Backbone:
């Protein structure tokens, strides 16, 4: 393991005590257990708006709302951190209003943690890209057609106004299917933009800035990026530029390479992942934090996630199926409603979507996946064994 | 089912509808409204969000418009809609149509009525209608009726036919009701039709009252179809023919001013679709529905904290269609930076936790949460209106209350 780890001390039973990072960073990572076989670890990440148990799946509340779910329901689902989207919120309603409303926490009335991304990804995926220069990303606003330049400084300024607990640097995002010199250019630029983001952060005492490791599917570029970025004193690292259509074999190699070279005492956030199987594997590869729109988005299409796959509730086969989505699930939807009722409700009211959203968030965040493995994990101190147990049972 | 009237003042009836089901656990305040649903779900709400509201009406309404297409499923399920939907502890009323939507006219026949589900039109005979009720298992339901007299210039002949058909359907329903095991505990309400023709209204009321029904549904008075003056006149004539001790449920009327006017002519119960309509146009109810106990304290109370009425009349942007003067339009740019709750002093989840600016943002960005929060507020406000109306009646403050609501 590389990296500068200051103030490490060994506590009883081989567990590390609380590691404080740089004096200003409002983040603490306490490692509760580490798997002797895999690279998995269970931690408590303490942030300004409370503790977060890792591994953690963070649902995405793009426009300052979790798609039809109230913040009270989200809290009751056990969610300790969720995402807001800088690009969308920066457009509507804009950072000035949100700042006036006491930040994104105040605006949407969410009292736990928030992570905001930089806006970079949307510019690749959503918007007609005009140009990427050293200065920033120039793009065309979808609302009034005007050209807007998003610089690292501006991204951080917006995120400072949003007041999120974790902010992401603006990175030069390149799809993982792109090859050639563009990938290297983007990697080096991301390092330079990281430095500009660090310099621009007005609130280092209450907002954590995470770096994003780039380098595409090129091991050398990834390693170079890791070497450079880990020299910067940031409270956490994200692995970026993956989960974008690359081959699974390449994907996993890059993930494990990244966690090999990231400091043990800082959280590792794998962006845009994802599907249940990927989550389990990437926990084993040493990742702590995940986000993905998939569970909430697929819910609105009537797709309910279960350990054995997914149920397309709108399909005819569920019209007379009087059991709940998952008989073992403890979420509000499964405790009260059957597949048949939800199937019927999809023809009349939006509440059907909310029921599935609640179930899917429960599945990803709490009930089935991470938490059940996690509880085996705490017991057996071995993630690998817990996974075996979990999938066998 | 029993209607216990505690007071009748200037034509307004105040009381309690009890023994709605066999187990006699639920009672509904009169005048009051029912809980409006789509397929047994209050629009936009899960049970968790619904129960942030207190003092929900004891009766939940479902409609055949929504449920008819699920007949087969309900028959196989065998335990009725309440259980099928995972509903909370509530009584159930089943109506034919959904007053929040206008169904196309012209499909009704001597023997059938039509309902419109997600798959299109379904034709119901009395037999099918009653089979549906058996599968749904409501606590009370309206008999099958021809209410298609709401269009302008419906001929006298057509209105008479509607009355005749409805009576014939009622008689058939009553016979089948007796024979249906699943409906042993349920009650039938007869439906009074008659369009806008006084003689037909009286005839329908008189004839329906002769049948052994538990209560009366007043149909064909939909808000869009009729001016309140005419409606009041007709309802006065109708209620004169109806027994005092049986409840009167008016369908299709929900606007606060019309509700008050109809209570004044003897209506007991209303459907609860109005808050839903307000929600769907991105608006929030904000009219004053406070009650003062006497003239002197009215002056003192005016200095205290209570729901503040927003000036609803002038709205900068174009108003949503059908917007009334009882609501504010959250789509309007003026709310973009307004960090106050929808209605000051309102204790609903939305007003306790969120701001006008946030709701405006949710509407602008087409977010689903807008519907959830507005539905919660609008339902809370509407229920508060009915509570206040009852209080005003109990304390002889109706005129003052009316003035506040209508200002």
Residues:
């Amino acid at each position: 393991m590389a990296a500068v780890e200051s103030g490490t001390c060994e506590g009883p039973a081989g567990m590390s005590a609380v590691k404080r990072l740089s004096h200003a960073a409002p983040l603490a990572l306490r490692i509760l257990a580490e798997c002797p076989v895999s690279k998995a670890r269970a931690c408590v990440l303490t942030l300004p708006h409370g503790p977060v148990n890792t591994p953690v799946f963070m649902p995405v509340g793009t426009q300052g709302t979790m798609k039809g779910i109230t913040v009270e329901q989200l809290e009751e689902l056990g969610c300790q951190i969720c995402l807001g989207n800088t690009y969308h919120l920066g457009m509507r309603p804009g950072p000035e209003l949100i700042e006036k409303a006491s930040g994104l926490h105040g605006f949407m009335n969410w009292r736990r943690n928030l992570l905001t991304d930089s806006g970079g990804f949307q510019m690749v995926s959503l918007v007609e890209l005009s140009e990427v220069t050293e200065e920033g990303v120039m793009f065309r606003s979808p609302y009034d057609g005007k050209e807007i330049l998003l610089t690292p400084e501006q991204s951080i300024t917006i995120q400072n106004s949003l007041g999120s607990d974790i902010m992401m640097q603006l990175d030069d995002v390149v799809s993982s299917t792109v090859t050639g010199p563009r990938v290297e250019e983007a990697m080096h630029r991301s390092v330079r933009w990281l430095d500009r983001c660090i310099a621009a952060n007005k609130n280092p005492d209450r907002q954590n800035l995470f770096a994003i490791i780039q380098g595409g599917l090129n091991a050398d570029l990834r390693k170079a990026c890791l070497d450079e970025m880990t020299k910067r004193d940031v409270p956490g690292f994200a692995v970026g530029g993956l989960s974008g259509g690359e081959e699974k074999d390449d994907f996993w190699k890059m993930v494990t390479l990244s966690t090999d070279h990231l400091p043990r005492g800082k959280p590792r956030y794998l962006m845009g992942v994802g599907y249940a199987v990927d989550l389990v594997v990437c926990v084993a590869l040493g990742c702590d934090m995940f986000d993905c729109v998939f569970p909430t988005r697929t819910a609105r299409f009537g797709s309910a996630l279960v350990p054995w796959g997914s149920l397309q509730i709108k399909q005819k086969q569920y019209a007379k199926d009087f059991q709940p989505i998952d008989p073992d699930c403890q979420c509000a939807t499964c405790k009260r409603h059957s597949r048949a009722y939800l199937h019927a409700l999809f023809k009349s009211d939006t509440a059907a979507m909310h029921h599935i959203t609640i179930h899917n968030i429960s599945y990803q965040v709490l009930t089935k996946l991470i938490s059940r493995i996690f509880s085996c994990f705490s017991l057996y101190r071995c993630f690998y064994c817990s996974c075996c147990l979990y999938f066998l049972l | 089912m029993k209607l216990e009237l505690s007071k009748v003042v200037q034509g307004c009836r105040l009381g309690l509808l009890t023994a709605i089901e066999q187990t006699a656990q639920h009672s509904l305040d009169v005048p009051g409204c029912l809980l409006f649903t789509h397929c047994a779900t209050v629009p936009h709400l899960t049970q968790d969000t619904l129960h942030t509201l207190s003092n929900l009406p004891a009766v939940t309404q479902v409609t055949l418009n929504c449920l008819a297409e699920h007949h087969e499923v309900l028959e196989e399920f065998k335990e009725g809609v309440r259980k099928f939907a995972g509903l909370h502890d509530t009584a159930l009323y089943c109506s034919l149509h959904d007053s929040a939507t206008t169904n196309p006219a012209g499909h009704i026949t001597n023997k059938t009525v039509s309902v419109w589900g997600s798959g299109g039109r379904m034709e119901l005979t009395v037999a099918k209608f009653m089979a549906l009720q058996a599968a749904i298992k409501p606590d009370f339901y309206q008999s099958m009726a021809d209410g298609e007299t709401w269009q302008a210039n419906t001929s006298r002949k057509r209105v008479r036919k509607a009355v005749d058909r409805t009576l014939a359907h009622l008689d058939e329903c009553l016979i089948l009701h007796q024979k249906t095991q699943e409906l042993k505990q349920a009650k039938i309400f007869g439906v009074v039709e008659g369009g806008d023709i006084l003689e037909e209204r009286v005839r329908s009321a008189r004839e329906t009252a002769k049948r052994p029904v538990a209560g009366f549904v007043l149909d064909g008075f939909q808000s869009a179809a009729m001016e309140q003056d005419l409606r009041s006149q007709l309802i006065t004539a109708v209620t004169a023919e109806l027994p005092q001790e049986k409840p009167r449920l008016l369908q299709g009327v929900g606007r606060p001013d019309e509700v008050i006017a109809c209570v004044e002519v003897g209506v007991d119960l209303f459907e609860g679709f109005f808050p839903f309509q307000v929600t769907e146009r991105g608006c929030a109810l904000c009219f004053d529905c406070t009650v003062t106990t006497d003239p002197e304290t009215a002056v003192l109370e005016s200095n205290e904290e209570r729901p503040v009425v927003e000036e609803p009349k002038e709205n900068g942007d174009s108003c949503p269609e059908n917007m009334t003067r009882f609501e504010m339009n959250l789509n309007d740019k003026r709310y973009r930076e307004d960090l106050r709750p929808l209605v000051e002093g309102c204790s609903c989840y939305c007003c306790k936790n969120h701001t006008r600016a946030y709701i405006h943002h949710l509407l602008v960005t087409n977010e689903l949460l807008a519907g959830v929060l507005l539905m919660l507020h609008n339902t809370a406000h509407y229920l508060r209106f009915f509570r206040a109306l009852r209080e005003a009646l109990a304390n002889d403050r109706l005129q003052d209350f009316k003035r506040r609501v209508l200002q």
